[in-house]
């Protein structure tokens, strides 16, 4: 059976995206550890993207050297933009978010990626909504629910769960420590807010990456080469940004085996295999499908974050994440129902109904289906 045919082949993109997000979750937990230990954000990103470039360049040459596809200045411009959206700036914002909050909380914002990707796909014609149909209503309701959950995540932290430190604090605090404790709590609240803002910006940029990658995949469908070039541009961008912000040469020295392992693991697995796998899935199933697996990162990260890093899980994170996931799958249910309806029209059914839908384009919205041979119109970047 072919990868694009019926049967087991249709599950390959699903398995790839599960593996990708499992790797992302473990990387986020490692990043939280090394960043807390003092590793510079931009130094880590530069090393990570450099390792990914060195790893992918020979792989791309070996597998794609006989390809007839040619790089153009337009494609290089898109790959440079993609490096900002998916490699350098986005990773820097997420690292800030991880440092100021927690790995589990940072992953919770990834739940918003499918919704933001869906909303941003509308102006470019990659997605359409028929508000009169049940599928269209589900898309709108799911989007609104996700936005509400993300707002709760940002504005409400709540009490920590599975954390017994509060009782210890209350027994050891005396009157003289009240002022100092208030200052510490205010500082932590400010850091938490800054981390939330960084995560919001990073989530928007990450969602934009799926749209730009969808456009690149149609014009240059070579995953290894395009990813290697994107990582090369990202390494240069991170290095320039790092030198403009922090010029301390000592920050470029990796300390300890964990930092070295984290750089190579994040570079080869996270920025190498994972981006290649995501690019392939975006080409096969579209940007919204690929983004829909983002909630897996939070669930997997929590399995490592809470028991090993002893990060507290807050009530606001739990409730907000649950609302976002519910809204996400309402949205995906609507999209899947729309695809099934359109598939039924193309395969057969009531001739009068089909004729009416063909004559009324508003009742038959265009969607991105996994078996579609004609690609949707590309975004006008």
Architecture overview:
Belongs to the drug/metabolite transporter (DMT) superfamily. Plant drug/metabolite exporter (P-DME) (TC 2.A.7.4) family. Residues 343-381 are annotated as: Disordered. Residues 14-154, 194-332 form the EamA domain. With 381 residues, the protein is an all-alpha fold. Helices cover 73% and strands 1% of the residues. It has helices at residues 12-36, 41-64, 73-86, 88-100, 103-109, 113-121, 134-155, 165-172, 178-219, 223-245, 256-285, 287-291, 295-309, 315-347, 351-359, and strands at residues 160-161, 313-314. The protein has a two-stranded antiparallel ribbon. Helix 2 (41-64) packs antiparallel against helix 10 (223-245) and helix 5 (103-109) runs antiparallel to helix 13. The longest helix is centred in the middle third of the chain and has 42 residues, at 178-219. The model is unreliable at 1-7, 164-173 and 346-381 (pLDDT under 50).
Describe the protein's topology.
Layout: H1 12-36, H2 41-64, H3 73-86, H4 88-100, H5 103-109, H6 113-121, H7 134-155, E1 160-161, H8 165-172, H9 178-219, H10 223-245, H11 256-285, H12 287-291, H13 295-309, E2 313-314, H14 315-347, H15 351-359
Antiparallel strand pairs: 1-2
Helix pairs in contact: 1-11, 1-13, 2-4, 2-10, 2-11, 3-4, 3-9, 3-10, 4-5, 4-9, 5-13, 6-9, 7-14, 9-11, 10-11
Biased composition (Basic and acidic residues): 349-363
Organism: Centaurea solstitialis
Keywords: Membrane, Transmembrane, Transmembrane helix
